[in-house]
Amino acid sequence: MRKKEVLAAIRRRYRDRQPLNVSTVKREDPELVAAVYDVTPYWGWKQALADAGLSYQSIRIEVRETVQCQLCGKSFRSLLGHLRIHETDPEDYRVKYPDAEIVSESMRQASMGPRCKMPAPWLPHWEPIYTPEYVLDRVKEYADQGIWMELSTIERLDASLLRAVRYHLDVSWDDALRWIGLDPVVYRGCYRPDDFSLADLQAFLEQRRAAGLLSTPAALFATYDDRHRRPRVFTWALQRYGNWSAALDAAGVDRSDPLFGGDRYLTKESVIEDLQRLQHELPDMSHTTVSLLPYGIQLTGAATRYYGGWDAALDAADIPVDIRRRMATYDSADEVVAGITHRLENEFSVAPLDVFFGARSDIQLWKAAFRFFSSWRSAVVKSGGTSAQVKQAADTPLGTRAKVLRELRRRSHDVRQLAITSLTSDVADKQLHAMASGFFGDWQSAVRAIGVDPKSYHQWNLTPHRKYADKESLLKEIRRRRRAGEPLHARGLTSGEHVDVPLLYTARKMFGDWESAIRAAGIDYDTIVRKRQDYDAYRDRVYRSYTSADQVTQELKRRHAEGMPLNVRAVTHSKEEEYRDFALFRAAKEYFGSWEAALTDAGIDVESIRPAWVTKRAERLRQKQQRSP
């Protein structure tokens, strides 16, 4: 259906006094609803009604009082108790009848009433019940009203909407934004590019200046209106110019003014100058150590802005590599107290998430505080924190070891939930990660404390990505390499043009060794080896050793008396086993400094033991040098 046909159908239903709420129309005319949501860019049912000249105040709405059981045909307000008669549970019922409802529309409507957790009275529900279509329309409405569309903001404004996204759409919040045509990366759809101009930004900054208000990123991120929206011109500027510093430069303000953050680094040269100065004042030049300076965030931010990253800025300033690693270890309670006191005196946050994950994070300090004190809060108290700072330090629902263990055990019914890779940016996950690392030293130790082996949830163990999953596929590849003339010896599998290390290692796991795998493929192992060692010859070999200079001298004299060759090549690489003795050569260099010095100490003339071809070559080179001008 085209858009005009959809609008005509909606108006026709309105004239016939038929209900126009989504759930009813979807039940009576599903093609009409599907046509609305097939339109791109996103249209939505609410907008379709508006384009048809209607509103939710003018349409008829129908809500069913009962729901029909698909197993027996009887109708009830709820099937939760009735399904027990059929000896089935709601989950199995939904699997068998995925489009069937279990609770009547009237009961679902009641659940969306005053008791619903929805602290945004300025955006009441316009549909009586949640449906997948209404979920998308409501997400779109928040975006159209300029709300900051990040997950945490919507959670504070309308927690029921997030639950509805998960239940009715079965997608993530970001995917829901994509369904309505918003790019989650572009500030969660909170502005449109043509909403503001540079003049609007300049006027906004001047208003804040006149009111004596800070215009730093921290201050503006903490500023909300009555609808929990950050200043929209601020978010517009962030996307338009890439960062707040660039936006301030475009507005022509002096960023060194304290109202705009008092930026100390307006040029590349100022960054380099401070980095070179600080290398002589700080214990190290790690990102963490510098960030803990009162102006450290400005410096690290400017380094990234001008050079693309912290290490790149250190390279430009010629900072030695050996002082770029964090060196603070906090080996005593006094050092921990000093570290926390530094944070308190500079008014840095001591909230657990900020200390562990924030811009001024210090994970070494965090873990050391738990080693020397019972908790992070106790360490802050010992360091002289005020009541407000102590309260901030205790800002976590997992303030004791027992609570951390309880939460880990709750998640342990599915061990995959205990993998660090499964932890998201969700605040609850961050709290658990930080507190577990504090009380137990690291995440793996915390998991072991509840009796779970970290290997049991490691992704490689749960879903191993093997190149050769079974013996058949491995033997097939060996035979293919044989037909293609590719090397099958170990050196050819680990280096060169035809490398395939997984083939070698997997074969050893499955067959015990590479030779057994080759023979299992029906190939004669002797035809593919690069070099066959004569192990029988090596078995009777005598390995010599020389533990003193006297032993070296005695051996040299013996060899000289028996007329054995004593030049370096003969001793180290002779084909005659009785002449070859690399241990003698190595010991001579160790005790005398060189082979020639050892021979001289043994009373042997170095010139006399040199082969004739060496003497001739030396004479030839000497004559050639004399003839040259």
Automatic annotation (TrEMBL):
InterPro entries: ROS/MUCR_sf
Protein name: C2H2-type domain-containing protein
